Amino acid sequence: MSPSAVVDAYPEAVDIQVKEIHAKVLKKSHEDELREKSSKYILSSGAGYSKEIITAAEGMHFYTASGHKVLDWTSGQMSCLLGHGHPEIVKVITQNAIHLDHLFSGMISPPVISLAERLCTSLPNGLDKAFFLSTGGESNEAAIKLAKSYTGKFEIVGLGASWHGMTGAALSAQYHYGRKGNGPMMPGTHMLPSPNAYRSVFRRPDGSYDWEAELEYGWRMIDMASCGSLAACIVECIQSSGGMHVLPPGYLKALKKHCEARGMLLIVDEAQTGVGRCGDFMAINHEGVVPDILTLSKAFGNGLPLSAVVTSEKIESVAKERDFMFYTTHLNDPLPAAVGDKVLEIVLRDKLVDKVRENGKVLHDGLNKLKSRYGCIGDVRGRGLLAGVEIVSDPVLKTPGLELAKKIGDRAYELGIWANLSSHPSFGVFSEWHRPSRCRRSS
């Protein structure tokens, strides 16, 4: 019997095992023991860990060792687009774990070819070639290196409050947490102001947000600081980790014109906006802009480590001539590629983008109703099922409401809702949601 036949012969086996786990509640003594071991053996990441021990996850929920069932409004680490334990994803993982999991990085397999074809044919012309890595930081690192190789230049521009990863070039091009305590950042990095319509000081006479003046001012500062070697600008269409700042209509087109005028490439990081979550297949579709390089991660693998770098045949050809190299242990691994291919298949087949657009309207209408009802909600931001609210203690002065936000978050968790609480000088205090686009029904 072939490995795939083994899986097909027991189609219910995986589901049964997953459902049995959910009834498993640990004894308090065992839970306390696990907490002690966690404190003793797990290295701090700098962000802090939850005190809860999570024993299972299914659909839109996760379960704690004490039996608490919690609605997972962040989709794990903003990644489980289709929910936890989606049966089609489980089957693909099982099949590939049995017969095609990992290969030498220079080898190509059918799942990788299928994913590359499905992805590139679903994207606008000019995004023609892709390879696959593990994390968003890794894909942005590769994209920045690719841009430097193609242009022969080295300076990189990022936006304030951006988040692109924890690796060298990606970290240097972001202006969020993680920059301190590591010595010098990558040379030649510059920052544009974050397009924050709620707090920006750039205003027209009528009080509306003047993003054009802000963008022009930012580029003037960069032109003065640059040594004449501007290679690329990397940007998110919605700065999710940075406070859910949505690029104003026309911003990305203007940004691309600025890049073209300086001989730079435009890199768009769709880690948190791609694969349908915002009501378009990609956020660039909403903007009507084709970047020179596109990166994907998070939802792309529905929780598995999978990312992508996509670019044009021209950029690939020139970079290849200039000996561009980005070679990793898990480059084009077949197992995560098979999962990514299945994710795209489900999103396109089941028309999830349309459903996200419909449900996103309901979500945002509801959040705006709450805003009109409660003065502590200063602003509602996002698009589709990527959304959040800014918590303030004074709606007139827009004073960040850190203590209040923490109380709201703690109370929500008590009631069985998990949402991410962020704070940063550029946006105050923010609670964000990354709702799954679809999940199987929990039993």
Automatic annotation (TrEMBL):
InterPro entries hit by this protein: Aminotrans_3 (IPR005814), Aminotrans_3_PPA_site (IPR049704), PyrdxlP-dep_Trfase (IPR015424), PyrdxlP-dep_Trfase_major (IPR015421), PyrdxlP-dep_Trfase_small (IPR015422)
Record's keyword terms, sorted: Pyridoxal phosphate
Keyword S-adenosyl-L-methionine listed: no
Annotated GO CC locations: mitochondrion
GO molecular function terms attached to this record: pyridoxal phosphate binding; transaminase activity
UniProt keyword Protein biosynthesis, yes or no: no
Family (UniProt): Belongs to the class-III pyridoxal-phosphate-dependent aminotransferase family.
Protein name per the record: 2,2-dialkylglycine decarboxylase
Organism the protein comes from: Bionectria ochroleuca (Gliocladium roseum)
